[in-house]
Design a protein that fits this description.
alpha+beta; Alpha-Beta Plaits; four-stranded antiparallel beta sheet; two-stranded antiparallel ribbon; 2 helices; flat
């Protein structure tokens, strides 16, 4: 079954060294998925300042700069993982570096067709 792991955390400024260490941790997580033969995909998102929220009201497109809700934690990236069950998805989500300081929401994906 496919699960999405949504990575939430505070948007903070990092030194180049901190960025490098964080990327190394994410690379290690990706390698751990490969070693376990977990089919996956994932991407990081640009900073929240680049977000645009789209709504349709009375047939008109309304856009707002930024995310849809005020919150201290922002969605920073995700992984889609093909796991045997929810227990495995949770086990893997706990290994995502962002879980150490933020949170990772795990949800099963609906596969159409």
């Amino acid at each position: 079954m496919k699960y999405i792991a949504l990575i939430y955390g505070a948007e903070v400024q990092q030194t180049p060294e901190e960025q490098q260490a964080e990327m190394a941790a994410y690379d290690a997580f990706g390698n751990a998925l490969l070693e376990r033969n977990i089919v996956h995909e994932g991407e990081a998102l640009h900073p929240i300042a680049t977000a645009t929220t789209v709504r349709v009201r009375d047939g008109k497109i309304v856009t707002t700069d930024g995310p849809f809700a005020e919150t201290k934690e922002i969605l920073g990236g995700y992984y889609v993982m093909d796991c045997k069950d929810l227990d495995e998805a949770i086990e893997l989500a706990a290994l995502i570096p962002g879980a150490q300081n933020g949170s990772v929401e795990v949800r099963p994906l609906v596969v159409f067709g």
